[in-house]
Design brief:
Layout: E1 5-11, E2 17-23, E3 36-39, E4 42-44, H1 48-58, E5 66-69, E6 72-78, H2 84-93, E7 95-105, E8 112-114, E9 120-125, H3 130-140
Parallel strand pairs: 3-7, 4-7, 5-9
Antiparallel strand pairs: 1-2, 5-6, 6-7, 8-9
Length: about 140
C-alpha cells in the first residue's frame, strides 16, 4: 500500500501557484545490505553432482535447494542471530556469519541437478542478489583443496 500524499496549493507573494507535498507519517522503508560475510568453514565439491548428493544426504531426503550465481553452485548455513553477540554484530556492523559453505563450479545455470542415483535437487538462480553474487565470486577465486 502506498503512503497517502496530501497536496497543498499555495500562492506566493507574486500570485504564482506552487504545490507542496506532505507525506503521511507512515512507516519508513530503508534498504541496508550486509557489509560483510564471514565464512567459517568451506568445502569444495569436485562436481555439481557431488554437492547435490551431499545436500540430499544432509537434509534427510527433504527438499533443499542450492544457490547458483556467476558459475558457482553452493549452499550455506548462516549462524543464527539468536544470541546477543551475533545479533549485535549483525545489526551494528552489518556482519553475517556463515558457519559452512559447500560449493562446486557449474558454468551454466540449470534449474535442477539430477544425480546418477536419481536424486533431484533444485537450483535457484540468485544472480539478482548482490550478496549472493559477491559470495559466489569470492568462492570462484578460492583454490580447491
Amino acid at each position: 500500500m502506498h503512503d497517502k500524499i496530501k497536496r497543498q496549493r499555495k500562492s506566493d507573494t507574486n500570485g504564482k501557484q506552487t504545490v507542496n507535498k506532505m507525506v503521511d507519517n507512515g512507516p519508513i522503508v530503508k534498504y541496508e545490505p550486509f557489509k560483510e560475510i564471514i565464512i567459517m568453514e568451506k568445502d569444495y565439491f569436485a562436481t555439481p553432482d557431488d554437492i547435490a548428493r551431499f545436500v540430499s544426504i544432509i537434509s534427510g531426503g527433504k527438499a533443499v535447494g542450492l544457490n547458483w550465481a556467476d558459475g558457482v553452485v553452493f549452499l550455506y548455513f548462516p549462524l543464527p542471530a539468536s544470541t546477543e553477540t551475533t545479533a549485535k554484530l549483525l545489526i551494528e556492523h552489518g556482519r553475517v556469519y556463515w558457519t559452512f559453505v559447500g560449493y562446486s563450479f557449474m558454468p551454466k545455470y540449470q534449474p535442477v541437478i539430477e544425480t546418477r542415483e536419481k536424486m533431484i535437487v533444485p537450483v535457484v538462480d540468485m544472480t539478482s542478489n548482490e550478496l549472493i553474487k559477491k559470495a559466489a565470486l569470492w568462492l570462484k577465486n578460492q583454490k580447491p583443496a
